[in-house]
Amino acid sequence: MALVTNSVAAYVPLPELDAETEQVLAGWLSDLDAPKVVHDFKEAYKALAGRGLHLAGEVDDTAISGYLIQPDRRSYDLADLSQHHLRMSLAPAAAGSNQLQLQLEEEDVASPAVMEAFAALQLSDHFAGQLVERGANQLLGGLELPLSEILAEMELAGIAVDTEKLDRLLDDFSATIAQASSEAFAIIGKEINLGSPKQLQVVLFDELGLPKTKKIKTGYSTDADALADLMVKTGGHPFLVNLMAYRDATKLRQTVEGLRKAVSDDGRVHTTYVQTAAATGRLSSTNPNLQNIPIRSEEGRRIREVFTVGPGYEMLLTADYSQVEMRIMAHLSGDEGLISAFREGEDLHRFVGAHIFGVPPEEVTSAMRSKVKAMSYGLVYGLSSFGLSKQLAIPVDEARTLMRDYFDRFGAVRDYLRGVVEQARKDGFTSTIEGRRRYLPDLSSDNRQLREMAERAALNAPIQGSAADIIKKAMIGVDAELKAQGLKSRMLLQVHDELVLEVAPGERDAVEKLVREQMGAAADLSVPLDVSVGIGVSWHEAGH
DNA sequence: GTCATAACGTA
DNA sequence: CGTACGTTATGACC
Questions:
Q1: Nearest Cα to A315, choosing from A532, A520, A512?
Q2: CA–C1' span, A437 to B1, in Å?
Q3: pTM for the whole thing?
Q4: CA distances from A382 to A13, A377, A414, A464 (A)
């Protein structure tokens, strides 16, 4: 967990605290009210880094509270642990607070930070054995802990934004919102809150008498899918047109507003990466979330233009893995067909389409290709034929045939997917290529819905999680190589299968080379890891 | 203020 | 009846 003020995991050494460490801890904690970037964190980190457990949670100005996390993401509530393993008690940090504060029975404790360190010290004895048992030492010590420092550096660096451009976008989106809402109001003859699904339900289904959509808890859905349906059924009702324009523009404006507020004094945005949020081992990004910046729509892509190269640097470089999850699926399943497709560098979806539809690759139409693409990605999520039929707007029969033909041709994929769930039911967990576990107790639930959800999660976790392992390993390699070569270029962002770097003058070729090498070598799969690289002065321009 | 819900952006 | 997230607004509640 990257070392920032609002989300902290401390790595506490196993040996007893010496006076110096104690002082660092106390100083570290007292600085938590400082601005976002606290330089002492680096010192604190270095003093504390090493062996130990992962302690995560919330920080306020008097205490760190929270839970301990195993490398495989199992977490242990400190309240529970303290009762069972320590002679400690926990009390609410404040009246009505849902945070807990550790309290030692000993009275002569210098500071909350020291208390916390003491707690971790004792708890570490309890967990050290389990770490070994689970074969998770390498995952923690060789991957997550080294990554933590890298994430801290990325957060400290931040990414430069063009605030003037940001403000112009804000104005543009606001104008669209004003336009769309006034037209929408004119059509229905009154002003409502277009952002309220409840009020929309009244207008759409009661007043305009449009056909009922998918049922949800509170009535009928007004989500994008439902509106698209209604558009078709009504032949493009003008209210719907304006509502959809309003939705798009407000979403974009919210994103822009969030970014605007997040720009710090250095003209850059410093996200926080959370190493312990996602059950699969992915990172998450928060405050602001830079892992969900729009890219699909033209208007949305304009937001990526505001992320720019900062002073002293020459350009941004993005590097992403192409089709990592499908490659991991090919590797894990050992499917000869998929593996040879990747080895020969074919257009994957065209290749698969040719086999499923029984035509030569050059005769795969774009409609066929997009069906195959949807299905291939869907498989990674445990998609059903019903789900596929809905997504592609085709009859269930056709979807079923499509899937059957897929599995006829790529049988090892089906066997693998089945095997994963079966093994997980037996073990209680799934594993990634680096041995990261995800526990899925619901696999044996009596509740069918819960059980099937767990089954889909079990299908997905080794794939998504292995992809996370791979890019994390790549980040450690990239960081090490940048430093080994004495380069000034630096990593700024990670977006699951993509890295964004800021390239110092004259370092472009060296950086591209090492990024390709390190990302390509982050795993030894039976298929190559393809990396595509883009360059530009903005994230948009560098993207591809 | 806190909470659940609906919605929607990304991989 | 497709996985994994984080953020925002609304509306009900305390």
A1: A512
A2: 38
A3: 0.82
A4: 42, 9, 11, 12
Q: Which nt is closest to the CA of A262, judged by C1'?
A: C7
CATH code at position A39: 3.30.420.10
**Nucleotide with C1' nearest the A452 CA:** C1
Q: Find the nucleotide nearest A374 (Cα to C1′).
A: C2
Pick out residues 109-138 of chain A having their CB under 7 A from any atom of nucleic acid strand C.
Answer: none
Domain count, chain A: 4
> pLDDT per residue over A160-211, tens digit each?
999 999 999 999 999 999 999 999 999 999 999 999 999 999 999 999 999 9
pLDDT of A153 reads 87
Q: Which domain holds residue A532?
A: 284-323+468-536
Is the domain of A139 the same as that of A110? yes
What A335-340 contacts at long range (C-beta under 8 Å, 24+ apart), as own/partner pairs, is A335/A410, A335/A411, A335/A412, A335/A413, A335/A416, A336/A412, A337/A409, A337/A410, A337/A412, A338/A410, A338/A412, A338/A413, A338/A527, A339/A526, A339/A527
| pLDDT at residue number A124 | 61
At A393 the pLDDT is 87
How much is the pLDDT for A46?
32
Show which of A405, A428, A460 is a domain's final residue. A460
CATH of the domain at A245: 1.20.1060.10
In a domain? residue A42: yes
Instruction: Answer whether residue A72 shows pLDDT above 60.
Output: no
Could you tell me the distance in Å between the CA of residue A196 and the C1' of nucleotide C11?
9
- A293 shares a domain with A426: no
In this prediction, residues A156-162 reach a mean pLDDT of: 94
In a domain, A40, yes or no: yes
Nucleic acid strand B within 7 Å of A295 CB: yes
Which nucleotide in the DNA or RNA is closest to residue A385, CA to C1'?
A: C1
- CATH number of the structural domain spanning residue A358: 1.10.150.20
pLDDT at A423 over 50: yes
**A6 and A150 share one domain:** yes
